[in-house]
Design goal:
This protein has 490 residues and is mainly β. The protein contains 5 helices and 23 strands. The strands form 5 sheets. Strands 1, 4, 8, 11, 12, 16, 19, 20 and 23 form a 9-stranded mixed beta sheet that branches. Strands 6-3-9-5-7 form a 5-stranded antiparallel beta sheet, with no helix packed on it. It has a 5-stranded antiparallel beta sheet with strand order 13-15-21-17-18, with no helix packed on it.
Length: 490
């Protein structure tokens, strides 16, 4: 789930992962480096074919003008804005792009991956089956002009240009929550260590936000403790404060849940590089007085011996004034709400193109949404495991049966999951009414033609597919959509 070329963490995603938008938008995962010798003195020049021999006037054409595009005048601003959050010293990417010397060897790879749509990582696509009614916030896909810029730079040998001509760089996207009301850090350290093939651990951390009355969250962000082992974090509201008696505020080996029997609500999640989660203006997530926050922390041991985390926590921003819309999330599919249209989830070994589909009627056995209450959809996310390859969610109008596609991820990648927030005001989101039906369709490939499955099998010492059922383990599956709605308050 993180941006690493040697990503080993495809094991035991044990619950639905609701991901905030990623700031990092480039990756060299699985690719070989370009020519290590590179341009002479790091300053390529020549006739446009990448020849770095030059004629003593590096970075210039025959008229003495700087080759364009070049790093200092053209490419550095794009890299800073689109790549620097992850491709930096101490970041989660497998290589850094903090300067020209670190970046030019990847020029061709950057152009190839961007043109293929692999980078920036973004999987909510417009397809013949899905034309979403609204755009998404934080869409990192590059424009045609930006794609052409990277290709042209690579094709002429990735010239540096002159530092004297360097343009002012834009600030990289900030992963810090602006103006947090409070920041709470875990009260006791946890330790993990690789044990054979066992690399993944799930520990729950209870945090007291310290609020004396009901508040409404309008921003949150995970504070990283030990980034070397932090794989992802699920964020829950512990409504009754049942986790308050955990020794040191930690319950180890809590699986994919919350570690408590009391009422909880999944409200967000995080992976390295995620931007803060901020609902639309006027939408808040209610945090009752006395409630606590539970972080289900997925640690992935590196194999470097005993490793510790004592600094993971949560930054929260809230208001005491009730917002226009109160937000809630519902999980639809397996193992969530809804009726299976294809029977209990089971993907036979060797099956390709296997489909599971679920249908949930809004308000069926759940929240009453009469027509007098305005309910608007503001966020949605898909979730499957390693066998999944394609997932689509749509809503069917109760009166006309017209279908509105909400999200399609036809090139599903377990390592890149996020919440997709609609780029719209709260009152412009898709209207949801009692009697509407939400459909969730998941497609799976349980064969050795599925590279993600092959890797998952290998990590468990297997070389052939097995029958797959619903569950939390590496070779279990899910078919879940998370629907975030704002309910207009009186």
């Amino acid at each position: 789930m993180v941006l690493r070329a040697d990503l080993p963490g495809l094991v035991l995603l044990s619950s639905f992962v609701l991901i905030a938008p990623l700031a990092c938008t480039d990756d060299g995962a699985g690719a070989e480096n370009t020519d290590e010798t590179g341009p002479s003195s790091g300053n390529p020049s020549g006739d446009g074919d990448g020849d770095s021999s030059g004629d003593g006037d590096s970075d210039s054409d025959t008229q003495g003008e700087a080759l364009r595009p070049n790093w200092h005048q053209d490419v550095a601003p794009l890299v800073t804005e689109a790549c620097a959050s992850c491709h930096t010293q101490g970041g989660v990417a497998p290589f850094t792009m903090d300067n020209y010397e670190q970046t030019w060897p990847w020029a061709t790879l950057m152009a190839d991956a961007s043109e293929a749509g692999a980078m920036p990582p973004w999987h909510a696509l417009e397809t013949p089956e899905c034309q979403p009614p609204l755009g998404y916030k934080h869409d990192p896909r590059l424009s045609e002009e930006e794609l052409a810029l990277l290709r042209d730079w690579a094709d002429i040998g990735a010239p540096e240009g002159s530092p004297d001509d360097a343009v002012e760089l834009p600030p990289p996207p900030s992963t810090e929550l602006a103006n947090p009301t409070t920041t709470v850090i875990m009260g006791a350290a946890v330790e993990v260590e690789a044990q054979g093939n066992s690399l993944d651990y799930f520990h729950c951390v209870s945090l007291d936000p310290g609020h004396a009355q009901d508040v409404f969250i309008d921003g949150l962000q995970i504070v990283q403790g030990n980034p070397e082992i932090l794989h992802h974090v699920l964020v829950y509201i512990d409504e009754s404060g049942a986790s308050a008696d955990w020794p040191g505020g930690v319950q180890t080996n809590c699986g994919g849940g919350t570690g408590v029997a009391g009422p909880t609500q999944l409200i967000a999640a995080w992976i390295p590089g995620s931007l803060p989660m901020t609902p639309p203006e006027g939408v808040g997530i209610e945090l009752p007085a006395g409630a606590r926050m539970i972080l289900n922390v997925h640690y992935h041991a590196t194999g470097a011996g005993l490793e510790s985390d004592a600094g993971t926590g949560l930054a929260l921003r809230w208001t005491e004034e009730a917002p226009e819309y109160s937000s809630l999330f519902r999980l639809i599919g397996a193992p969530g709400n809804g009726t299976p249209l294809t029977g209990p989830l089971m993907i036979p070994a060797g099956a390709a193109g296997h489909v599971e589909e679920f249908e949930w009627e809004v308000s069926q056995g759940g929240d009453p949404f009469p027509d007098s209450v305005e309910v608007r959809l503001w966020a949605i996310a898909n979730h499957m495991h390693l066998v999944g390859v394609d997932m689509r969610v749509w809503i069917e109008d109760r009166d006309t049966a017209a279908q509105t596609c909400l999200l399609h991820t036809p090139e599903w990648d377990f390592n890149w999951q996020r919440i997709y927030e609609y780029d719209a005001l709260a009152n412009e989101g898709v209207r949801v009414r009692a009697g509407d039906k939400i459909h969730v369709r998941c497609e799976y490939d349980n064969t050795l033609d599925n590279p993600a499955l092959v890797q998952g099998l290998a990590e468990l010492g297997l070389d052939e597919p097995v029958d797959v059922f619903v569950g939390e383990g590496t070779l279990d599956e899910m078919c879940l959509a998370a629907i975030g709605v704002g309910v207009k308050l009186p």
